Amino acid sequence: MAVREYIQKVTEIINRAYEEQTETISAASALLAETVEKRNNVFVFGCSHAGILAQEVFYRTGGLAVINPVFYPDLMLDTRPVTFTSKTERTPGLGREIAERCGMKEEDLLMLHSVSGRNCVPVDMAVRARELGVKTVCITNLAYSSSVSSRHPSGKRLFEVCDLVIDNKGDIGDASVEIPGLPEKIGPTSTAVGAAIINAVVIEAVEKMLNDGFVPPVFMSANLDGGDEHNAKIFDKYKDNIFYM
User: Fold this and answer.
1) Distances 196 to 18, 68, 193, 203 between C-alpha atoms, Å
2) Is the peptide bond before 69 cis (omega within 30 degrees of 0)?
3) Domains assigned to the chain
4) Other C-beta atoms within 10 Å of 82: how many?
């Protein structure tokens, strides 16, 4: 059954992505932990479906309160027509403007997600961030990205302009399952695998902070007794590092 094949494949890819990149994920976690401990700022960005990871890790039960998503209206899935997102993410220079509007500064951290890594916006954003002294981590698909040309004027893809690169180990084109009679593959894996990867980075960063004697700002569910009070204290303490309120 195709659905069983898909579930097995997602599970296998998550395991392979972690097992083959334990050191890289640990290095990304160390950057995240250091950034939070020093009271610098953390940002996460992606275009259209890649931006789902930015929504996954902010204002989230069990997540770090100081992770700030970067949303640009014409790059989000509620844009109509949604095909406009594909045009917008190819616009040279726009990523630089988005990076500058965020208020990123030296020693901040930017995590980017782009499966193909070929379009202008994420590449420009990473380049501008590094010019500002911001540390950059990307989640991408190295096999996919290496098989396509860049749409950026520099000819660079995202994995070529970031400090740390985490490979989502997906298939070229992202879809993963073949069904007889259908010429196209079905079942993309990047969102499920990417969510596992970025949460792994957060979890290990929290563990590192605790080992350093630093209590990280982790949200409780607002639906648990005491959750609102706990979260309100975090918002007050970290108001200078939280930009989504």
Assistant:
1) 9, 18, 5, 10
2) no
3) 2-59+67-198 (3.40.50.10490)
4) 11
